[in-house]
Amino acid sequence: MRADMTMAGPLVIRSQHRSPARTQRGAVAAGLHDAHGRVIEYLRLSLTPSCPMRCVYCRPAGMCGQACDQMTSQEITALVGHLVANHGVRKVRLTGGEPTCRRDLVPIIEQLAALPHPPQLTMTTNGLSLARHATALAAAGLTRVNVSIDSLDPDRFRQITGVDDVERVMGGIDAAIAAGLMPVKLNAVVMRNYNDQDMADLVDFAANRQLEMRFIELMPMGPLADTWGSRYVSEAWMKRCLDRIVETWAPCPADGSAARRYQARLTDGRHVTVGFITPMSCSFCDRCDRIRISADGALYPCLMDKPAGTLMPGLRPLFDPEKVTQILLEGLGRKRIEHPATGVSVMTEIGG
Ligand code: SAM
């Protein structure tokens, strides 16, 4: 089956793509291709814009993030079930804001894991409450987590996040490992003359636990957008910051993630996987396989673009799968071939 949609640009739905999902009856679900031939099978779903952290690059001063009319757990389950069964979505990453701020996080995961053909369910978190909840999250059906940790230095961690608790995050990482939420990946946004000096400690921490450490280039969106040029650190600079502990960089085969990954041999003989996520120095837009939906149902075809509509009319007062599909296809038709130069929103709202 193949249908060409003309109302929202040359978007096509095709039944054949890399890994077809199965419909509830066992037939192959139609996969989504955007107007530029990219297969969309990865949903990043924000559960809430709320977050106890105030990261300098993410959350503008004064933003409280509490006020949105967020999707209920039933609406989320119906929406994801529809995208999986009928549009070939295979991977769902729960994010925010901070997804663990959602009181009904465990039931949401249970419901998504109980879908007839459940997607791969992962989560990005600040790690603050993993020590308490990792076991329950794994039991509910979460498969793995990415944890943001920008520095191990308590003072710098507090300066960056506004929270004086790096040890709690480190404990959360160990709890995630113990709960089997593997592979746990660690993410750090690197800022020049801020935390670039902490990269070696982060690599050492990851190597001790055999985790993957990923360094993210600062994107010109959110509170540091105006001073981005003075804070931005490219992959090449990041590697130089690691010169004193990394002896060799051996490229790893691509694993479908956004990161360019290397097996780093450290000067003390240990090995660790280090990834660089380089939206600015080396765009991966041509491989983009994702869409984002914010907690209030706004559809973001691109992290750095404005929303392309809201799915709410398809969710309320009753779930209307045809309406959801129509809004989705219209929005996806606006997915650009490359992200704009600067972001128009903040990640904590969109779901980074
Ligand atoms: N609260 C969770 C966390 O701390 O990971 C999930 C949400 S957070 C918005 C998701 C990711 O966005 C984090 O890895 C964060 O570092 C990243 N992020 C936010 N603003 C960014 C920016 N301006 N440039 C690059 N990464 C950014």
Provide mean pLDDT, rounded.
89
How would you spell out the order of helices and strands?
EEEEEHEHEHEHHEHEHHEEEEEHHH
Total domain count: 1
| Tally of contiguous helical segments | 11
Radius of gyration: 20 Å
Number of strands: 15
Question: What's the CATH C level?
Answer: Alpha Beta
- Determine the N-to-C terminus distance: 33 Å
CATH topology: TIM Barrel
Q: Ligands in the structure?
A: S-adenosylmethionine
Q: Choose one word for the global shape.
A: globular
Helix content: 25-40%
- Strand content bin: 15-25%
- Alpha-beta classification: alpha/beta
**Which segments are poorly predicted (pLDDT under 50) over 5 or more consecutive residues?**
1-25
- By CATH's scheme, which homologous superfamily applies? Aldolase class I
Strand order of the largest sheet: 11-12-13-10-9-8-7-6-5-14-15
CATH architecture: Alpha-Beta Barrel
Describe this structure in words.
This protein is an alpha/beta fold. It has a single domain, classed as TIM Barrel. Helix content is 28%, strand content 20%. Strand 3 and strand 4 form a beta hairpin. The longest helix is centred in the N-terminal third of the chain and has 15 residues. The N terminus is likely disordered. The site of S-adenosylmethionine has 20 residues, from strand 7, strand 9 and helix 11. S-adenosylmethionine binds next to strand 7, strand 9 and helix 11.
